[in-house]
Each structure stands twice: as C-alpha cells, then as structure tokens.
Design a protein that fits this description.
By secondary structure, this protein is α/β, with parallel strands linked by helices. The chain has ten helices and 13 strands. The structure holds adenosine-5'-triphosphate. The site of adenosine-5'-triphosphate (ATP) has 11 residues, from β2 and α1.
Amino acid sequence: MSDPVIETHELVRDFRRTRAVDRMTFSVAPGEAVGYIGANGAGKSTTIKMLTGILRPTSGRVRTCGLDPMRRRVDVSRRVGVVFGQRSQLWWDLPLRDSFAILGAIHRMDDVATRARTDVLVEQLEMGPQLGTPVRSLSLGQRMRAEIAAALLHSPELLVLDEPTIGLDVLSKQRLREFLVAERRERGTTLLLTTHDMGDIERLCDRVLVVDRGRLAFDGTLTGLAGTVGAQRVLVLDLAAPTPDLDDVPGARLVASESGGLRQRLAFDAERTTAAAVLAHVSARHDVRDLAIEEPDIEDVVRRIYAASGRP
Ligand SMILES: Nc1ncnc2c1ncn2[C@@H]1O[C@H](COP(=O)(O)OP(=O)(O)OP(=O)(O)O)[C@@H](O)[C@H]1O
C-alpha cells in the first residue's frame, strides 16, 4: 500500500487546562476523501493546524505527506492546499488574477505554469468574469471558489478544507461540490474537510471521522455511522390503492402507514438490503405509484453519538 498522506499517532494538544486534541490516532491514504466532523470546540481546527504546521503538538506524532509539519513547514506547504473558511489567502484590494500570480510566485511556479493552471481552475470554477474584480467585491460564493482555486494552484496532493460551504446558497454549494468531486476524480487529490453540513459529507466523502472532546469517536463510512446509532434510510411508497400494512418485507420495518395504507414508510438497513430490493418485493405484490427515499438525518446521527458519550 502507498504511504499515508496523513498519519497521526497519539497526537495531543493542550491549551493551558484544555486538552483540545486527545491521543488522536488515524491515517488517511492517498486519494481518500475524509469528512472530519464534530461539535463546536471538539478539536477539529486544532488537529488541522497541527497537520499543516501552524500549531506544535504537545505530544504524539503527526506526519503530512510523510513530513513533520513543524520542521518541514515549507515543504509541507508545497504539497498541501488549505482553505480556512474564516481566513483568506487572497489579496483583498487586488484584482483576483493578481492573487493567483502572487501565489504562483510564492510556490515558485514559472509564469507559464501559473497562467496555465489558473486558466484551468478559472474555467472549471467558472470564475472568468471575476478575474479583474478586487477580492473584497466578490460575493461569498465567488470568494470561496477563489479560495479553493488559490489552494489548488500548485496542484497539491492534499486539500484541507475547513467549512468550505458555510454560508453558501444551495446552487453555490452544489457547484463547489461538483468541482471537488471532479478534482478528486481527475487528479486523485486527497481531501480532508471539516463541515457542519452533512450534505458535504454525503456528496464528497467516503469516510467519516467523528471527533468528540478531542478524541476519535468514530472512523468509518457514513452508512456505518448511521448504523451505529440505529438510524436507517426510509423508503416512502405511494400505492395505487389502500393497502394492508407492508409488515412482511424482508430487511425492512414498517414505520408508518398513512391515508388508509395509500402511503407507507419502510425503514431499512442499507448495510443489509437495498431500496431496490425492498421496492421489488412490494411492487411484485402491489401497484406502486411513486416513491422517495429519506436519508437518515446525519445531524441527528451526530447528536445521538454525542448523547451516547454523555455530552449534552
Ligand atoms: N488558541 C487557543 N487557546 C486556548 N484554547 C484554544 C485555542 N484554540 C482552541 N482552543 C480550545 O480547544 C478546544 C478545541 O478547539 P477547536 O477550535 O479545535 O475546535 P473545533 O472542533 O474546530 O470547533 P469549531 O467547530 O467551533 O471550529 C476548544 O475547547 C477551544 O476553546
């Protein structure tokens, strides 16, 4: 197996009396997309700062792209792109294109390479019309796309995003997610992102790390995360005629029957069966008019994980 892009072992960071990160051990392989989630103050930003060489660990080990981020900060910055939602890496008063030029120089890219990469990113992120606009005049969605372009200018192996879609409208979120999916597919970029928006996790990540009071509380798939607290997907079926309770469908459990059996909701465990199998079983016996799938409410899943660990 290739070497991990991120590796932590028993990583600890204390602030006076607060243990912000508590013996955190995990690793991320090249090309993975990992959601790093947890309540406010759980320790997400502190971990990211240690991964990128901004904060020194109190104890334990961290390696980013195989390097010690405190000792090799410059080398790490050449291989990692970071976007902190609240902090900008762009020059506020300059036209956007100048920020790209300056960042290219900082990364020691030659002008031709900088221009070529800028052109690609600007096209993919549909930012052409904004290149001449001072950064301070960009909308929030435009600025976030610009931040991500800036973080990717030097084609890093790892892109770390702290709340990339916070405050964005639905369309901007969707475009940004589509871009990140494509970036990952085309370049194999490894993604680590923190978010409070579970849509980001669902659309972008194949693995979730849940941090709770500085500790790793879960490491696995989103489906697995839902499974750990008993949250299930629900298939909502609209039937052509009032139908007796569908309480004998293998792998599914009737949650509700409404309007005399015209609409029935069946919960199923996505690790044991599929919506297609449940639907096939029902439609072999009844006339199904319409259907919808309700995903588990992941905010609720996360809340339940905290509740299980005794946190309010
Ligand atoms: N510079 C600092 N000085 C003192 N305490 C800090 C500092 N930075 C973070 N902390 C504390 O460490 C803990 C973890 O904070 P951190 O910012 O890593 O959480 P987070 O999971 O990123 O939260 P959020 O989702 O709100 O950004 C919190 O209790 C926070 O108050």
